[in-house]
Design a protein that fits this description.
By secondary structure, the chain is α/β, with parallel strands linked by helices. The protein contains eleven helices and ten strands. Strands 3-2-1-4-5 form a five-stranded mixed sheet, with helices on both faces. The protein has a five-stranded mixed sheet with strand order 8-7-6-9-10, with helices on both faces. Helix 5 runs parallel beside helix 7, helix 6 packs across helix 8 and helix 8 packs parallel to helix 9.
Length: 348
């Protein structure tokens, strides 16, 4: 049951599912008041991936400063906050614990409702957010029914939304997520971490010139599989090094072919899903949504309008958690003080 909330209803949201400690203030579910993110990328880069224990400790150190920074634009401080939201899962257990416990403590101390959000749902709702200097009419709500492609380091899913809270999972990855495949391929090619931006950078403007990476179509399924493309890159680089690495341009061509293969599968399945479900628009969400070839190819091939968040709202942030929490609370969904974490939480 949906209830109307008073105008100006404001949420303080926290996000700690992986390696970003984030806090944000969202008003009326869509207006971005503040969005603070403390990144740990510099700490994990040396390991080529996120170290869970390091992430958890860093969240504890960063939590208070990001919350204070997020509240700073509010003249009335906590008196202007109507609810506290957090990410319950999926994510790293220790990282999730810091955010959930902080949110519970803040909500209890200030006598506010607590709203837990699914991390994947939050990524979808990044498409509802607009900045303070934009009028609502300039950023209308996405039209239902819609298809959303959620692509990040840990998740790849194709979801049909018929209304707020009405989800149907059309397909998901059977092995590696798209972002995970980018990270692993980049590591194999010696490009460093995080992999997505590194692959896009080296592949920019490069013609693969006969280098082809296979696609896993999985028949008529909307599911994805990216372990094969990662393995292909592994074998291709091994062969390249075995012959003396004489062709200096080969890694860039391989990166371009890899990126092209991943984008082709993501876009083809999304476009087919939009046509077969009668979607009125397509949304793109998650960290990999920042990939320029993915955005451009989806726009070029989609039969309906395509929307995606600005890059700063594609990667993990708390603003998207606040937007999702607003629409959950409006439907009467609220968490109690027994709220725990669910590292393997499913969207549907």
């Amino acid at each position: 049951m949906q209830t109307d909330l008073p105008q100006g209803w404001t949420i303080l949201a926290l996000e700690t599912s992986c390696d970003e400690t984030a806090a944000a203030v969202i008003r009326d579910g869509r207006r971005l008041i503040s969005n603070e993110v403390a990144s740990q990328m510099h700490l994990h880069e040396r390991y080529g991936g996120v170290v869970p224990e390091v992430a958890s400790r860093e969240h504890i150190l960063s939590m208070t400063p990001v919350i204070e920074a997020a509240l700073a634009p509010l003249p009335g401080g906590w008196s202007e906050i109507n609810a506290v939201a957090c990410t319950q899962g999926p994510g790293l257990a220790g990282a999730l614990l810091t955010g959930v416990n902080a949110a519970k403590g803040l909500a209890w101390a200030h006598g506010l409702p607590l709203v837990a959000v699914n991390h994947l749902e939050a990524h979808i709702y990044a498409n509802w957010i607009y900045p303070p200097d934009v009028e609502p009419a300039e950023h209308p709500d996405p039209l239902f029914p819609l298809v959303c492609l959620v692509v990040s380091g840990g998740h790849t899913a194709l979801v049909l939304l018929r209304d707020h809270g009405d989800y149907r999972l059309l397909g998901q990855t059977r092995d590696d997520a798209a972002g995970e495949a980018f990270d692993k391929a980049a590591r194999i090619m010696g490009l460093g971490y995080p992999g997505g931006p590194r692959v896009e950078q080296i592949a920019r403007g490069v013609d693969p010139k006969g280098v082809r990476v296979p696609r896993a179509w999985l028949g008529d399924s909307y599911d994805f599989s990216f372990s094969g493309v990662k393995t292909h890159v592994l074998h291709a680089m091994a062969e390249y090094k075995a012959v003396g690495a004489a062709d200096e341009q080969y890694p860039a061509r391989l990166a371009a072919a890899f990126q092209e293969a991943v984008v082709d599968v993501l876009v083809s399945k999304t476009v087919r899903a939009a046509a077969e479900t009668g979607a009125r628009c397509v949304l793109l969400a998650g960290g990999v949504a920042a990939n320029t070839p993915l955005r451009e190819t989806l726009i070029a091939r989609s039969p309906v309008p395509v929307r995606y968040p600005p890059i700063r709202l594609c990667t993990d942030n708390a603003a998207m958690v606040g937007a999702a929490a607003y629409f959950r609370y409006r439907q009467g969904l609220q968490s109690d003080w027994s709220l725990g974490i669910t590292p393997g939480l499913k969207l549907v």
